Amino acid sequence: MSERKALNKYIPPDYDPSVVKTKNKKKDNRQSVRLALPYSMRCTACGEFIYKGKKFNAKKEFTNDTYLGIKIWRFYIRCTHCSGEITFKTDPKNADYVAENGAVRNFEPWRDPAKETETDEQRLARLEKEEQE
What we know:
Blueprint: E1 31-36, E2 41-43, E3 49-50, E4 55-67, E5 70-78, E6 85-91, E7 96-101, E8 103-105, H1 113-117, H2 120-132
Organism: Tortispora caseinolytica NRRL Y-17796
Protein name: Splicing factor YJU2
Region (Disordered): 108-133
């Protein structure tokens, strides 16, 4: 009975450690995380709509990019219908996320596409005009 708790195990004289297979898998630089989808999206492969808040077991990796010292992370998930890979990454400039591939973000009515595409000079001119009015 005390043998089951023993710290020393018997090693035979003909033991070769190179023959024994280890259970350790090759580790990649991706971490497994559990996350909720930050926005609704549609899979480009099968057309399945995936709603905001759906929880996924995702892989997270650092992209070696930064914005004002803030790390940018990339997330990998699988489509719930076709198991196609979907990737999106953080966008600290706009405090949001950007869909990279595998899915398209659904339309959001509170975003003005004209304001998103305007340059800094156009934005400055627009704000000065609004201030004068």
